[in-house]
Amino acid sequence: METEQEISNTANNFGGCPVASELGIDLFAPGSQEHWFEDYITLHNEAPISKIPGGGWLPGTDAFVLTKFEDIAKITRDPIFSDFSPSEGRAARGGSSKLENEIFEEAGFGET
After folding, report:
1. What is the pTM of this model?
2. Region Disordered: what ranges (predicted)?
């Protein structure tokens, strides 16, 4: 189990991750969706977590591309990487009714 400091260090390190365009990769260029495999291999080997400045969900935010299962699993399971409040998080995970929320709070979400 990671310590809170290790999690904080991981979160802070994303600000210094490689930028995909610095590797000559533009995931939004015309034709990139049809010919993505070479770019994926480059990202996987050279920048498993890469940043796309300005590509985030909200204006003025960045997007990140993760190419390794371990990184994806770690981030999707860690609440430090979520902007949801606890109640929004429950709704986003599927607990949309009061009964569902109670079940999830008591029993959790099972093996993930």
Report:
1. 0.54
2. 85-112
